[in-house]
């Protein structure tokens, strides 16, 4: 597992890359929610009122690194994340800044 501090607009986030066999689970936890790869279930987190969004890669490949995550495009956001201003189409970094 790789852990890294990610500077955000209003605070810092903690990024994680967790190897799961042939793929990585990649996510950044900000002060008010998280942004993750496609393996993150944002609907399940919404049931707990937790803001979450997931990204798709810009190049059509996979989200394998934290750099891929912050440069990726939000493809799904739950209602709690939307209440923080997270919208489909923005970058992972923009969403994390809103959640910071």
Short overview:
By secondary structure, the protein is an alpha+beta fold. The chain is 23% helix and 37% strand. It has helices at 42-46, 66-71, 79-82, 92-99; strands spanning 2-7, 12-20, 23-30, 33-36, 52-56, 73-77.
Specify the structural class. Answer: alpha+beta
CATH architectural type = 2-Layer Sandwich
Question: Which strand order does the major sheet show?
Answer: 1-2-3-4-5-6
Q: How many separate domains make up the residues?
A: 1
Question: Topology of this structure?
Answer:
Elements: E1 2-7, E2 12-20, E3 23-30, E4 33-36, H1 42-46, E5 52-56, H2 66-71, E6 73-77, H3 79-82, H4 92-99
Parallel strand pairs: 4-5
Antiparallel strand pairs: 1-2, 2-3, 3-4, 5-6
What descriptive keywords fit this protein?
100 residues; six-stranded mixed sheet; 4 helices; globular; alpha+beta; Hypothetical protein Ta1206 fold
Architecture overview:
- By secondary structure, this protein is an alpha+beta fold.
- 23% of the residues lie in helices and 37% in strands.
- It contains four helices and six strands; from the N terminus they run E-E-E-E-H-E-H-E-H-H.
- The protein has a six-stranded mixed sheet with strand order 1-2-3-4-5-6.
